[in-house]
Design brief:
This protein is mainly alpha-helical and 430 residues long. It contains 15 helices and four strands.
């Protein structure tokens, strides 16, 4: 007897998510976040943007609080352009040629700072746009790729080939480069070189890798497609018009590039939610005594001798109708679903206007039934506690699927449409 798919009755617990994010904003974070102090700008951006997507940022904070948030972000601005990830490396008047290598700006901190300012409704008047754009250009390598920062601890520039930094550079450029920069002839990045690097990272199976000759990854594919969108390098009508770049450039990839990428993205949806073979031991195995109930419920996989022959083409039963009710996304082939990939994949399909190609209800049920946490937020996997990264990307994924209780999101910028409109309303952007 077949099992029919039940109606989608999964519940988005908005109030619990609001409480979770307000705790992140106004109380101390768990001790596990101590090692992320240098990523404080990312934590701040996700927290503020989550409350914005939930539509309560201005209701649950007062104007003086928001002004203090804005001032803190500007305290992280680097004198030579860009933003730090936190204030801990700012030595102020003690800065000199010997110690400046310990206080660099970085691309991630710069994007998160600009995004958070827009979420807070700031007009970016205090951003050193010229210095920032010149700094971004200085991070580009000869092959068109970008590194995260400029100097190592010896003061030597170290190039890094990584599509993630390419996307961050394209975001900062798109946010800050307006008509004034064109009129003042501020040197631009090598757009053709950057597009060429993204193309060279496109893999045989359709995804985009961190760099050429690496494995395709959903997060890197999001970054690659986002970069091409911001540079105006996708075929006409392939991407949302809201991602129109500040500077026009000739489309550099063809329809086949987009089609193979979409096929790879859609194939990332999976009903495999947990790797049941990992950490699994037989309870009847006498060689492994029972463990203390207070210990973590994780066990190292026991060592078994290899069989004399390894069978090939072992038939695998198809997933049952019951299992297909919950289907999230993985980041690579043969991996389990993970909350963040519901956005890395869903957001990329959103950029390409292809969200109709995956199963909305199955992904929504996966997020709300499996990884949405009782106290609010989302965990990485079913049963995991919530963390800031996965909690934000879970919200962003639902917003991409037009969840009724969330604001509309710009999938390329990963912030609300209303925050993007703050940027588009600035005089120097028109």
């Amino acid at each position: 007897m077949s099992i029919s798919i039940t109606p989608d009755i999964s519940v988005f617990n908005k109030e619990r998510h609001i409480k979770y994010w307000l705790r992140c904003l106004k109380t101390y974070l768990p001790t596990g976040y101590t090692s992320n102090d240098s990523n404080r700008m990312m934590i701040a951006c996700f927290t503020l943007s989550a409350l914005d997507l939930l539509g309560v940022l201005h209701e649950r904070t007062v104007s003086t609080e928001r002004a203090e948030y804005v001032d803190w972000i500007y305290r992280c601005q680097h004198p030579n352009g860009g933003f730090r990830g936190f204030t801990g490396t700012d030595v102020g008047d003690l800065r000199n040629e010997k110690n400046e290598c310990w206080d660099p700006a970085n691309l991630a901190g710069t994007y998160f700072a600009l995004a958070a300012l827009l979420v807070l409704g700031d007009g970016l008047e205090r951003v050193r746009r010229t210095e920032c754009l010149e700094w971004v250009k200085s991070l580009q390598s000869r092959d068109g790729s970008f590194g995260e920062t400029m100097l190592d601890t010896e003061g030597v520039w170290v190039p890094t080939r990584d599509v993630r930094f390419c996307f961050l550079a394209a975001l900062v450029r798109w946010m800050l480069r307006g008509k004034e920069e064109e009129e003042q002839n501020i040197p631009d990045i090598d757009v053709g070189g950057l597009v060429g690097f993204i193309k060279s990272s496109h893999t045989y199976d359709g995804g985009i890798a961190r760099a050429p000759f690496h494995e395709a990854h959903a997060g890197c594919t999001y970054c690659g497609i986002g970069t091409l969108t911001l540079l105006g390098a996708l075929p006409p009508k392939s991407a949302k018009s809201t991602a129109t770049p500040a500077l026009n450039s000739t489309a550099a990839v063809g329809p086949d590039f987009v089609e193979t990428t979409v096929q790879w993205l859609v194939s990332r949806q999976t009903s495999l939610l947990q790797d049941y073979e990992e950490f699994q031991l037989s309870e009847e195995d006498p060689s492994h005594p029972a463990e203390d109930h207070d210990s973590q419920n994780l066990h190292a996989q026991s060592a078994h001798p290899l069989p004399a022959e390894i069978p090939h083409n072992v038939p695998m039963p198809p997933p049952s109708q019951d299992e297909l009710q919950w289907a999230g996304f993985n980041g690579r082939c043969n991996k389990v679903a993970d909350t963040c990939y519901s956005f890395w994949v869903g957001g990329t399909l959103g950029i390409l206007n292809k969200v109709h190609l995956f199963d909305f209800n199955a992904n929504r049920r996966y997020l709300l039934d499996k990884t949405q946490h009782l106290v609010g937020g989302f965990g990485k996997l079913p049963g995991d506690p919530p963390d800031i990264l996965h909690s934000y990307l879970g919200l962003a994924a639902l917003a991409t699927m037009r969840e009724a209780e969330l604001k509309s999101i710009d999938p390329t910028l990963c912030i609300s449409v209303s925050a993007r409109e703050v940027l588009e309303g600035l005089a120097w952007r028109k």
